[in-house]
Amino acid sequence: MTLRKICGLSSSLVCHRRFLHDTKARSSRVFSGVQPTGNLHLGNYFGAIQRWVELQETDKELIFCIVDLHSLTVPQRRADLSANITRLTAGLLACGIDPERATLFLQSAVPQHTQLGWVLSCLTTMPRLGQLPQYREKAAEHGEVPLGLYLYPVLQAADILLYSQEQTEVPVGQDQLQNIQLAQHLGKAFNRQFGKLFPHPKAVVDEDAGGRVRSLRDPSRKMSKSDPDSRSCVYLNDPPERIRSKLKLALTDFTSEVFASPERPAVTALMTLHALAAGLTLEGVRSAAAGLTTAQYKLLLADVLAERLAPVRDAWARLEAEPRYLSQVLERGRQRAAEEAEVTWRAVVDRVQLRLS
Ligand code: AMP
Ligand code: TRP
Question: Which residue segments constitute the domains of the chain, with CATH numbers given?
């Protein structure tokens, strides 16, 4: 928490405020969100989660939010949502997110997200939200567009602004950039209308990461949770035999030698995946594949992926069998996040002149 936030508050609150993960000692904060839909795949791992885990080696304060309210914008069965939350929590921990080091919590458990979302929704316009490319893409799939889909980026802005400090970084894929710009705009609009409160959150986009891992069935598309063909994705908890059968079906081309080139997007995509999984350059992958046909190479790559994922899969299975532990992790995260969210929300209430009683 910054002094900025302490200022508008009563001294007793300040005295009793315990600093979220001792933020005074940390250089900056990182906030990001992930939806509990579908299953985690290699694209999620190499494009996002691996970087979150690496950030734990820095002195930044880390807050990761499982954004279950966002996932309601596509129809969910109640049982699926609850199971997906458990599975995602276990999956993130299995990948190496350390609850001692990072705050991991569930969005719906901190009601200030939706409360702030409402205030922010009054500061933007329908044309502005209607222009956002993600909305336009998703809206095209519906006859009548659910209101939640429209408001989605406002809720995302609330997620971010509730925890924003001077140096808050928001690591996201390229497709999220405009949503972060909306959060920046809404923070400024609030400050202009009600008095300075929100600092400027910074989007951190790893240019190469967003779509680096391609679909196994079509290299022109990124590996994606929403792909109806599950053979296009290697999920982080796929057993070795499933990885093998998916790799056998992976697209290559008519040249059986293994080398990367722009004219060979499918083989290049497999080699890129190999490079990421084994920590090699493309040249290193080419040497590892020397003398193999593409069919043989796909089996080698299946082995590399199975070996790389084995510890994640084992840890994931162990963690999923411990729902009470997972609930405790989320509860601890909720307590930390709620403390911070409440401070921001009280400052909002104060600026807007809402009344709590
Ligand atoms: P999504 O699965 O679309 O909710 O994406 C969550 C995050 O995973 C995104 O912000 C991306 O950074 C990352 N991601 C998803 N798919 C890929 C992919 N195919 N290649 C690399 N990164 C990806
Ligand atoms: N919209 C993001 C996605 O689909 C998820 C998200 C929700 C998010 N709130 C966030 C990401 C806040 C970063 C910060 O991937």
Answer: 3-211+322-352 (3.40.50.620), 214-313 (1.10.240.10)
What's the rounded Cα separation, in Å, for the pair 80 and 274? 32
Question: How far is CA 106 from its chain centroid?
Answer: 13
60 catalytic per annotation: no
CA pair distance 310, 156, nearest whole angstrom: 34
246 catalytically annotated? no
User: Is the overall model pTM greater than 0.85, yes or no?
Assistant: yes
| Stretch 196-215: mean pLDDT | 86
Residues with CB under 6 A from ligand 2: 31-33, 35, 67, 70, 156, 159-160, 170, 172, 176, 179
For residue 124, the one-letter residue type is: T
User: What is the torsion angle, in degrees rounded to the nearest 10, for the CA atoms of residue 163, residue 166, residue 168 and residue 174?
Assistant: 120
Taking alpha carbons only, the member of 204, 241, 203, 209 closest to residue 222 is 209
Are 184 and 198 a contacting pair, CB within 8 Å?
no
Please report which confidence band the pLDDT of residue 135 belongs to, taking 50, 70 and 90 as the band edges. confident
Q: How confident is the model at residue 67 (pLDDT cuts 50, 70, 90)?
A: very high
User: Which residue has a Cα nearest atom 11 of ligand 2?
Assistant: 33
Lowest-confidence region among 46-50, 134-138, 322-326, 353-357: 134-138
